[in-house]
Amino acid sequence: MNRTISIAALSAAGLLALTACGGASDAADDTATGAALDATAAEAGSALDLSDVCPATVVMQQDWQPQAEHGAMYDLIGSDYTIDTEAKSVTGSLVLDGVDTGVDIEVRPGGPNVGFQAVPALMYLDDDITLGAVNSDVAISGYESQPTIAVTSQLTISPQILMWDPDTYPGATTIEEVVAQGAVVVTAGDVIPALLAETTSFDLANSDTSYEGTPARFVSDTTIMQQGFASAEPYIYESEIAEWGRPVGSQLLADVGYNIYPEPLAVRADRIDELSDCLTKLVPVMQQSLINYLEDPAATNELIVEVVEAYDLSWTYSVGVAEFSAATLLDEGIVTDDPASGVFGQFDPERMQAIVDTFVPLLEAQGLITVTDIDPAELYTNEFIDPSISMEN
């Protein structure tokens, strides 16, 4: 259940003491679970031939445990994959639409697997990482010492929610209606409460930042409001937590000003020129991959669950949660084409400006940043986006 640690709270992770990631394990520690590769080789020099421009292994770093929200990465892993249970990674041929791109893809989880280090910190520790999932607020936190540039969005709005007991707050449908009744808001960091204090009637005296991702507090104290994800907790609490076993009330934090781009794929700012030729081909692949996953998530969901089980951590993840998550990403409008341009994966400059305007003061007040003169245009680029890619095509 640690999955629900706040994305915003991870902005502070860059301030933690950095420790090097574990090295690759011996071959004996690998768990080969894939079959022979069933894909056609890309035509030499074609848009899907990455072999001439990208690293032999494209390494992608996620910010949390394997889950459906990361479907774009896992959907690219070919059937010849190998799971490394020591290093906690899965590697296979990078395949899109049945075409082998000529390079491998390695997907690494974040969170407890990397000592809760922020993705920019990991990217600056390890040059092998090609792309990392860097939330907009985390990119702002790392702007001074670990700058990254987002090259394509994935989720359009954040799936983070605040949730409450509908029996305790009958008739409540919004966060505002619950905080107005004096509910204590339990989160894993200070950024969300600070935002709520600006956008709702929330009293910061009712903030509790002790959340550790477990259901025990919510189950035992039905008066609190607790963070979670629209794409997980409503299903988990109703279907997988026997002590609860009923619906929760919830609202997206995006509705009350949490306007970040969640988990956009980014490169280190000092490597964007070096990786430019690769990104020209790879970014459209990533745009299409998430669309493909959401159209037919079943096989990739099974892989995600298999990977979680192979890692054998305290983290658990069921096919039921994965199916619910993939459906919710679409049903709740969490994944859409960019509303401003109609292009999937493209960033909206006005929204990026609004994100900087919102989060720079909040992060400064929390002592997480000292540089406040941040140009939003330095946090992202649409240079590599294929404007023909849309969920409507």
UniProtKB/TrEMBL annotation:
<protein>
    <recommendedName>
        <fullName>ABC transporter substrate-binding protein</fullName>
    </recommendedName>
</protein>
<feature type="signal peptide">
    <location>
        <begin position="1"/>
        <end position="27"/>
    </location>
</feature>
<keyword id="KW-0732">Signal</keyword>
